[in-house]
Records
---
Amino acid sequence: MSNILYDFGSGRSDPSTFPVAALQQAATKVLAEQATEMTQYPGNLGHPGLRKVMAEREANREGVQVDPDHLILTNGSMQGVTLSAEALQGDRGDPILVEEYSYPGTLGAYRSLGFDMVGIPLDEGGMSPDHVEAELARLHKQGRKPRFIYTISTYQNPTGFVMPLERRKRIIDLAKHYEVPIIEDNCYADVHYEGPLAPSFYAIDDSPDIIYLCSLSKILAPGLRLGYIYAKPPMLEKILARRHDAGSNYFAAAVTAEFYKDGIDEHAQFANPVLKEKRDRTLQGLSEHLGDLCLWSEPVGGLFIWVRLPDDVDRKHLWNLSQQAGVAFLPGVSFHYQKRNVPYLRLAFGHLTLEQISAGLPILADCVRRARTSNEARQFTSLFENA
Amino acid sequence: MSNILYDFGSGRSDPSTFPVAALQQAATKVLAEQATEMTQYPGNLGHPGLRKVMAEREANREGVQVDPDHLILTNGSMQGVTLSAEALQGDRGDPILVEEYSYPGTLGAYRSLGFDMVGIPLDEGGMSPDHVEAELARLHKQGRKPRFIYTISTYQNPTGFVMPLERRKRIIDLAKHYEVPIIEDNCYADVHYEGPLAPSFYAIDDSPDIIYLCSLSKILAPGLRLGYIYAKPPMLEKILARRHDAGSNYFAAAVTAEFYKDGIDEHAQFANPVLKEKRDRTLQGLSEHLGDLCLWSEPVGGLFIWVRLPDDVDRKHLWNLSQQAGVAFLPGVSFHYQKRNVPYLRLAFGHLTLEQISAGLPILADCVRRARTSNEARQFTSLFENA
């Protein structure tokens, strides 16, 4: 990967909006003021100040009360993914419901934990509730109870779509009927560009069987490794009972709490427009260079665009051509719950410069054209058709 | 716990030697210089600079080469405890060998993971190899293979003793004979006061089935949540395959790497004498106030003293009296692998002031005397006798 000039592969935040000076001030302050706390263990929930700021973040976005003592700080949202799954785990081979295309890190963790993943088809509204219902009924008939449903319902990774309210409600009803917990991963929360959003599952229904995961990796920086689980008792205790790492990073949490002491809005309002411009530039480049061949998502938030390739693209050839040309992306196969080699790719735009985006997309488009094995016109009319 | 004035309970580092100014400088520098890295994921191994410094720390202490790419940075050594156990886990109920008295955090993690813990008696040389041999033979006869042996061989927690070289060699031989991995937890490493030490297991034998855990919680501060696993391939890959948290805290690691860029010695040589004085003061207080009734360990490093109580102490009464008198400690039951209520208590001295130590011990001694149910003379002549 040493000669990759246009890395659309990894989902990082934007280095240009990383608040160096403010974090320097915050670090200097908390090291002086919280030296004694730094020499203690942070406890299972973690830094009280950051939990308070994150509870306010949630309350402001969702319009409901959030108790800071129901937040568990984690090593990024990925520790939340693993910890919540471990807390709900039964026997190896127990089924869980996941989106057919999902975050590779989560899929890898669930594979490693031995879950039998049941993939639910996606469309422009996210996870299909008809398929959720059918799979829950089928598994119930077989006497196999899913341990949980995992969904990235807002700016779904990789597809970018937001699940509408009515669909969320229906999935909650189905989960309650079959007594299956829901894990909602909202790790792209507040990386929002335009238009209305749907509320989080926990804001729709206060069942303790709804677990919520969030992160600071996307609105601030992944290197801080700060995320959290929001869970109500008795689920809260069940998750804490599975935790054995003596708590999350107090230092990073204290610095971040100081940085965000007046809320997350100021930095988000500075960083999000920068990301929005990159999203727009990526969409523009796709239109100009692949408009006749591909379809893609137009996400209202998050860091990714999901691109449907023509069926006649030799995807192995495309990968090799792109690598040679210095362009990276993540192929569809990475996101499929059964690693099926589907005709998609995901473009991440968060950490690239506008110039890199503008220069990289025509090169990628050229590789797509060169990897085609026919000259036929595009065969599909929607992003999720016949994939 | 709000009126506890003399907290001998928790194993923390010393706030007075926490290097505020140096860490402030380090934080300011790395935030400026590594902003781009901060917006990336740190990878499964973690910050290369901190791994390099920690590999040198190990090499200097043990006199062997340590490859930084065989170090996995973790969220304190407790993530190392859990991750290595998960990597070696088979079925729930599989046996493992642990010291009869061990760190409660580890015991809790192993209980939660469903291991069947087999407790090995301890003496002034740590885990007894005769009992290790007997248990390995017994389990082998039953067709039950232990998943691993876990040992805190240096400044054993809670007993404080260091396992001699010959005993380490014998345990390695036994482990090899029965093909059982060893997990050595050296989390108090380099908190050393006087006299020679024994080498770590990995420095005695380069088998990939020896896993080594270490930490910065004791020599620097637990709030940084930095530890590491040292494991050679193929064990290294086996452990990494079980990791799903997207890597350890890059920010804390970068700051600490900068702070320690010339090695750990300078700060250790400043902090250890301060701790040694507290150990000495604690031993002196015990002699003065409990010399006729109790016996205790005299550790050459680490943060704890293990105190044998007279058998006639009503331990529940002692707990209540101490709490009322504002003195905290951890009772023996916390450390027993089967939670047996053994006649011991552990005193941690790292974070107390000398004045607190001097004032707290006579109060504790008074509680011990008041909790006795007889006036008999001490019935035991060694720390581990008839417990």
---
Amino acid sequence: MDAGSDDRMIIGFDGDDTLWHNENVLWSAEQKFHDVLLHYLPAEELSHRLYETEMRNLSLFGYGAKGFVLSMIETAIDVTDGRIAVADIQKLVGFLKDIVAHPLHLIGEAARVVETLSQSNRLILISKGELFHQENKIASSGLAKFFSGIEIVSEKDQGVYQRILTRHTIRPDNFVMVGNSLRSDIDPVLKLGAHAIHIPYEITWRHEHLSPIEGEAPRYFLRETIAEVPQTVSAIEGLPRTGD
Amino acid sequence: MDAGSDDRMIIGFDGDDTLWHNENVLWSAEQKFHDVLLHYLPAEELSHRLYETEMRNLSLFGYGAKGFVLSMIETAIDVTDGRIAVADIQKLVGFLKDIVAHPLHLIGEAARVVETLSQSNRLILISKGELFHQENKIASSGLAKFFSGIEIVSEKDQGVYQRILTRHTIRPDNFVMVGNSLRSDIDPVLKLGAHAIHIPYEITWRHEHLSPIEGEAPRYFLRETIAEVPQTVSAIEGLPRTGD
């Protein structure tokens, strides 16, 4: 089958940990959080308590750096029974400023891949998190001009992807999502009948963990780097599709 | 001139302090912040220092309740030279939870007005703040179904309104924005050539202050309550317009 322009896949790209590094910045803040509190609890226990606080606060704060550090402050007070020094709390607020002011670094060949694909396919950036922080990261990335749509969402579940596809009048079998998170980028789009290219990041936040998908799952493509995306998209465009 | 369906104005509504109460919830948190710190500084000075911190942090945190309370924590440590009790910092984190969990209260006849107008006009909700918190408020308001578009933005300036009008293919002279803030709802849309209905809220955050607009400014309508919006929109629809 020859892939004419109407057969071109519309490609959704995740931002954090797919196009640019993010989790390593949060990971590094968490290491500094450990350093502050190591004489109270071992690192592993601190991570565990912080994660519990984050999960408890998720329905109040949503995702994002501010909620992460507010949960750090709460955990720090909690695990020290209020004995933490005020100067240490001030350090935690400083970690937040380090995170949001951290210079953005694109991952591998993200820039080249996005620019090249934008010449042949419609691209949509679908990122999850805090509006203000995501907008800043997108602006810093210099990639905004290659996307015909930019969607910043507070959650990435099946309903959210369905609304995005509807708003952009995209058929699921004509859509492929590229992302690092099984939970947020891969699983919900596969359930909608779309394709997914999964590129794991070096670190996965515990919350985004999901049992690995079998290599043989239909419409699921596991790749090591973003450089492999153009070839994978071409392969998908060559597959027989509904309506053919 | 008879206002046929094509002559109907498209109406933008602000959310916070236009459709539902917001500033009073933040105001009340700030009073509690004063209570915590009154033995260090008088209330007026505390408000001043908090506002300075907020403005300094705006380019890092953006608008919203989490940034507000993070600035509270920073100010509290600052004005007490680190002598604030950890238990008091814990209280400040608690204020944030009170804010985000606060039940939403619609203002006056907001529900009736929005429902009625939605039967004759296209309505767009344009709210500024944190995505997650704004989405929760919009859901709680029960008003989402009356809007043909919902735009949550991190800033409300001329460029942002221009992009919204372009995306929805709305001519400025066919658009009227209803809101409480001169800075965010009124001034930028007037500059674009659109109409604006200004309904001041009982409290205005200092940052949103702007010199009052003269009663005679073209396309500017100052009203006391949201109940006056339908009649004002009808009056605007009866005005001669570009293209007539």
---
Amino acid sequence: MSYDELLAKIKDANLLRSTASILSWDQECMMPPGGVEHRSLQMAQIAGLAHQRFTDPRIGELLAECEADDELTSDPASEQAAVLRELRRGYDRSTKLPADLVQEAARTRSIAHHHWQQAREESDFDKFRPWLEKNIDLARRVAEAYGWADGEEPWDALAEGYEPGMRARQIEGVFTPLRDRLQNLIADLTSGPRRPSTRFLEIAVPTGEQRAFVPQIAEQMGFDFERGRIDISVHPFCSGTNPGDVRITTRFRDDAFADALTATMHEAGHGLYEQGLLPEHTGTPLGRAASLGIHESQSRMWENFVGRSLPFWEWCMPRVRDAFGSAFDDVTPQDAYEAVNTVSPDFIRVEADEATYNMHIMVRFELERLMMSGELVAADLPDEWNRRYKEYLGVDVPNDRVGCLQDTHWSGASFGYFPTYTLGNLYAAQFFEKILEDVPGLHEEFARGDLSSLKSWLNENIHKHGGRYQPADLCERVTGKALSADPLLRHLERKLRPLYGV
Amino acid sequence: MSYDELLAKIKDANLLRSTASILSWDQECMMPPGGVEHRSLQMAQIAGLAHQRFTDPRIGELLAECEADDELTSDPASEQAAVLRELRRGYDRSTKLPADLVQEAARTRSIAHHHWQQAREESDFDKFRPWLEKNIDLARRVAEAYGWADGEEPWDALAEGYEPGMRARQIEGVFTPLRDRLQNLIADLTSGPRRPSTRFLEIAVPTGEQRAFVPQIAEQMGFDFERGRIDISVHPFCSGTNPGDVRITTRFRDDAFADALTATMHEAGHGLYEQGLLPEHTGTPLGRAASLGIHESQSRMWENFVGRSLPFWEWCMPRVRDAFGSAFDDVTPQDAYEAVNTVSPDFIRVEADEATYNMHIMVRFELERLMMSGELVAADLPDEWNRRYKEYLGVDVPNDRVGCLQDTHWSGASFGYFPTYTLGNLYAAQFFEKILEDVPGLHEEFARGDLSSLKSWLNENIHKHGGRYQPADLCERVTGKALSADPLLRHLERKLRPLYGV
């Protein structure tokens, strides 16, 4: 049967991709420096074999046969229809790009990345400008190859690869009120009469002791170490091959215990999603996350709605004291809660707090949308960047190194990716309001260290569906409403205003 | 050019094999238990792709073209001629086995292994006997498919896969005098008037402290941690993908510090060989070890000729005292030297000492040769096994669990492998005599902790050649003599007789 043959071929291709995932994890976490050159050959070989399989014309034939089969497609809500929808999307995207464009893009990206590194080091945008121009041009050609529907725009064609079905216009409809009201909130907080306690952040904890403690928090969240592991990498990430083997990483610094904790909760949130996918769907679209934005909703939920909540700290603080002794004797749960919720507008995205983080994303979304439509040229990027940081966050960007050169994404011609970070925050807030409706005693459970209701709810309502629903549909299905800025704003207002006395 | 195309195809196939090596290392050292099922799919996929490539008929065509090209083959000592010799050997062996035999063997092996485990647990040979019969039959059919020359025998066809060019008759010529003289030596030692000190072995060292110390010894040997790493596994091994990424493992037990140390030196000896191969030959026969026996000569050289030497302990003992404090205050280098050189005939191969170990191997060599020629049937194995243990080692085997059921090899139909262990000891001894000729002050260097002359000699005379020479040719080339039992016997006699006062 065509459907079975199609699934077998897709599983075969995804099996190779899962091997690439191990090679990549190993490179980040285990491989000695001397292995780099050989590893790049291994990765290229596996990527090439996977690409061959995903673009095999036989997949196109089988897809067409299945799509013509009423039994498979008559109910668009069926599992088979969802599988075919996602396979069609993937196949079209894999086959629409001409091979010479793929090669040119890969070559240009790699050189552009090098020039970006240099430009950033020297804070000299002009060194990157010609390569950003090339990357913009390439991304626009890629977008053209993918194509977009009437009323859509080039940026949409790129973002479709990260957030299926989501369009710039919809995002704008949510981001605009978010931006305006966040701008007010941040201005209020920074001029408020009170400052949260930061005592908790000032206590150094030896790295070795953090390493023993932090996995216990992941375990408390329900991360299953029989089906996963935790390691160290420069940039924390979540990876793995199937629900039985999920790998998260974190990082440690003596003077940044809170960072290790939040990074771990963030990645374990991703990890719970991966462990919560159904093993019988491994290698099919139902066995993977719905989108990057939904994935990020899971990490941000645990990082922000658990790890930055007062009830969590009421449970966690005594454990911190037990683990690290007298240094934390005088630190209360309220101290820790305040410390991890300070808000300070700054230039650097990856160091931003829960409120200002979204502003960093919205600046990038607005700018890359303009670059993709041709309304903004590379040469004007620094000015436009700095103007928005002043307007939205009230900060003067001192130079391009901490300004428009800070992120690697555009050096790799990745346009359309940034919004998934804020979409994750928005989904998380909207899901969490629903969870509190369904489990009214949730915060009391947190205060007892019982995080199981939250995990079960996510398993049942999000994880087990994998990629069956497009993100916007999943949001409607789960919360009964379209995505909105309101839940996130309510969450931030309620939490942050009291801490700043406004 | 055919030769270049051939090499490119072989490198491509070996690149896949190196990915399989990472998957396998990861499974042993890193993978969580939940990953087993998916990993077996990944391994099967990569193995299948590699097999396809190694048996590609185009390789046969290219080989034939190259072999007909005088420029490539007129000088049999040239690199190209060596490459072609090894590729021909590999291609013939990969393509001579009918697919149904390969499948039947894999199926039978996996069931036989299961029955062997049960039989061993219950010490009930009869439970394994029918499966051993099947494995013998299969191995004989495999040998027939490979074929053997006039004057050779079925066992040779199997051993060729592990020790190219080595034949049972040659091995017998070396093993027989070794066995006879070892038998005398062991009898003399066990009845000698003196017993070596074992104080060193009786001191417990916390695992955590061993883990900090042991890698320093590997580093002292010259193992390069920029191009390698050391981890923990149940059975120590050496693995990796290329000279830039070599991975060894060891194991730790509080009451077995000496075991961790010798296991580490053994595996680091393998690791130095892999790190000493020339990177420009990666993926070709010149970029891999000459044979399992030669590989084992490297591990045994470091384990026995360094790690069980008095000069080494003169350097090492003060370091042990520095690392572990007062427990070792009264232990002298001589104590350690004696402790790691005790000889005690016993039933279990993997726990055997440097002298009796070879007896265990020779019993197995004799028996599997008879099973392959049809002169010994499975039902008679236990009696023949026990008779030889009594005769060669003077021990009464109490049951089949610690007798003929102790090793896994025959349950996997691996016949022809065992002798490489003793061949390794023989090569090591013969190489070491030559090294002492070339570097007369070697032991004085050891006593200063300077192991660099030994490493350089091995790099230059063994490692850099990779698989260019067949093991017997390498031995002749390096030592000027054919392989002989004399150097190993001289080494053991000189070292052990004084310790036992005989």
---
Amino acid sequence: MDRKIRVTIWDEFRHEKTNEKAKALYPDGMHACIGKYLEQFPEIEVRLAALDDPDQGLPDEVLQNTDVLIWWGHMAHGEVNDALVTKIQRRVYMGKMGFIALHSAHHSKPFRAIVGTMGNLTWGREQKEIMWNLLPTHPIAEGIPQSFYIPEEELYAEPFFIPQPSELIFGGWYEDGYIFRSGMTFIRDAGRIFYFQPGHETCPSYHNPHVLRIIKNAVLWTAPSAPGYEYRDHCPHVVDNLAERIAAGKAKGNMVDPVFAEIGYGK
Amino acid sequence: MDRKIRVTIWDEFRHEKTNEKAKALYPDGMHACIGKYLEQFPEIEVRLAALDDPDQGLPDEVLQNTDVLIWWGHMAHGEVNDALVTKIQRRVYMGKMGFIALHSAHHSKPFRAIVGTMGNLTWGREQKEIMWNLLPTHPIAEGIPQSFYIPEEELYAEPFFIPQPSELIFGGWYEDGYIFRSGMTFIRDAGRIFYFQPGHETCPSYHNPHVLRIIKNAVLWTAPSAPGYEYRDHCPHVVDNLAERIAAGKAKGNMVDPVFAEIGYGK
Amino acid sequence: MDRKIRVTIWDEFRHEKTNEKAKALYPDGMHACIGKYLEQFPEIEVRLAALDDPDQGLPDEVLQNTDVLIWWGHMAHGEVNDALVTKIQRRVYMGKMGFIALHSAHHSKPFRAIVGTMGNLTWGREQKEIMWNLLPTHPIAEGIPQSFYIPEEELYAEPFFIPQPSELIFGGWYEDGYIFRSGMTFIRDAGRIFYFQPGHETCPSYHNPHVLRIIKNAVLWTAPSAPGYEYRDHCPHVVDNLAERIAAGKAKGNMVDPVFAEIGYGK
Amino acid sequence: MDRKIRVTIWDEFRHEKTNEKAKALYPDGMHACIGKYLEQFPEIEVRLAALDDPDQGLPDEVLQNTDVLIWWGHMAHGEVNDALVTKIQRRVYMGKMGFIALHSAHHSKPFRAIVGTMGNLTWGREQKEIMWNLLPTHPIAEGIPQSFYIPEEELYAEPFFIPQPSELIFGGWYEDGYIFRSGMTFIRDAGRIFYFQPGHETCPSYHNPHVLRIIKNAVLWTAPSAPGYEYRDHCPHVVDNLAERIAAGKAKGNMVDPVFAEIGYGK
């Protein structure tokens, strides 16, 4: 990407207004905490959005200028507008926007719609977690040690009912005897998606440098690359007799694009 | 499965009433043609459903007694009820029902919702197709030769904008110079999905014995197997201190299910 | 498969002769312990083989009559004959034999050659493990609860340097703070492979009913199904002008197999 | 990568000395033709190697300074030294070198050993091919149109007996009625592999700008990225009681690497 990656961090932003512990940890919201970290990097441009903002924080002009959408939601999944979910989903499918689902966003409408999953899991009390790096050569694991310690996180446990991920990058060990697939990628049409488990609202995980670094790596990884050919939002009719036309020299050059074929087949 | 596999074949069933060629090929509908073939097999039980039936052919008592849903739709995708699509999607995700999308169902609401895709492709006039068998050892390819000939099919061409399939089983060669990924599987949560390209309403493909055999194979493959443990439709809380309890002998037996843990951990 | 599945259980079978604890747990070898369990099932036929048997336990007439090969090796990986490894690898690739690698077989020559991996991991002292069932609807998880307890197993820990598996079915939690991808499938050409972690020679894991059930399930899953079309051990030349011949009626029927094309194209 | 990507193009380089048509098309070898194109790019450094060079063109000092190895072989696969194949395979698995197999290298020793496949396919006479771009947003498809024309290529046809690729990017349509999965990626341990079908020795495909561009894109994609943590060539023992040590403050910082744990757990 030649320009900055435009990241919008969407936060339900309610716990941080009502829960004392959450408020103390994230006085301006978890999105602001993550945003403050990300905006240090010259290649990244940050915008914050919240459920209670006008248009639920994502009016068309924001969504259409977002390269990567980070999503944190929990108690108000059901309030998110279905039409907005569909817009998000299609922008991701078209390869115009990456999507990062944090923590309880496993159950959010956009994550479930985009990936195609119910996203159910089991959960339990806050406790010690050790995060393991299963795929150390993956770009999302860049700069991350073989394991790191999270002194306090809400337990998310298997079975996590999701489709087989494209790549499983992180796995969590929990004090109470549980494990979880904590960081993983999915690809849907032209869109890249990353799910990452840490980030309960009453835990300081978004102050953890490894957690933040992984989120930044995921921004770089999910951001759309410049495509050779754009995904479409319709099903075009092709040129009849393509092979014959080419052989007969009716297709100039050796590059053919049936969709635009009548205009000329190459450069 | 100890009992018969209960297959419901859902057909939009409109072309066959209005288009002369379709009517001649499939006087009782494409679903009836496929159903007549499938009901020969003692392990399969067939039910037909159509868009214009009450409850769009799929009232709850039908859906809840369907093990495999076969779907053919084209011109009326938009009429299918969203609430019905959600019910279908969740039944598939829970592993209670397999889903087979035929031909233009690549663009149907249930296929797109279940797989997580826009399902866009390019298309063209009816022509000769040779179907190639890329994965001859797959159960869905059982009894299918290395290739077979379809004298007349609507062109479906790449790029087909779908997620990378779980397994690519069939690929189509077309006279005019195009290719297509014609038969492929997807797995979403506990659900198994098969997409298969042949079946334009004015082509006799559902009279082709190889096409029919592939559909039957796909019924057997997508049908739910008896699971060791059911997928859930919620996120339960687990038992605290699981490892400690087991070590202290508070978990009887060596089998533990945290969800039902208080009742006793095994048999 | 119409006949019994012929399982050969190959064991290095040296620890059980020299280590007192191993000898006490498995007086006739680990292979005999697993074999005794498997031979209860009428659909399975068991044969035992060991490194110090003639032809390293796998003369051609044994290998060619084996449908599923189970492999346990550890201290003598280097002694296994390279020519034998190549024979095993090709039989698996051709779809004639499934392969199950147990415990330290992650570093065995056949596992590494078949999967294409170095198979490196980290390891530690024997300790408590809780095995989690990540994919409860998979046939290999049939009859297995959501989790089960292994009171004593050698620690195998991430990172496990393997290719992304086809399906990750089991994951292990360990007392000391580690996790491991414990049960997973790979598919290579027409061959199905299962890796399963439990089974250190001084631990009673092959007396654990869940471990044994998983091995039995894996036998059924890796066993070759009746293929529609056999994988080949060479690269045949095809028929020229196939499409033209078919269109000209020179290919009888609508079934064509270019390899045997001159003999006649179908039924 | 901060420095240039060091590409070694290995060519069997025999057809071009003995076959008149090959000699005319590639007087200095196919490797030289590809190399001339690649060396235009400032980020790439090219070295040529051939089977009949000393040490089969790949002495240790060359191999250890190669970031991406491109391989073209055909009639002399059997002559390639097994020890060299093992060195190549391990360098790829360790994530130190990408591997690109061209055309008949589907049957080469390194491709088969690295991917874990027999690599068998069917083939036929030289003919017209149309190459389709199935995954236009993949970095290897950057700058490539929806399809392009190859006026003359040796037929490679399905079934291609390989494991399911990580991503299928290109597919070929052939005049005679055949199709082929022509461009695809595999990942094995930390190594990235790309197979690409065009390049029969008597066809001008390595003068085709799209073919060349795809090879260049594949160089960038398969080249090792800077890993956060290196793959190892052994299985180290871990630290006992890791979770307890961390909780007791015996692990400084919140970053732990059990392998180097005694030295100190972070920065």
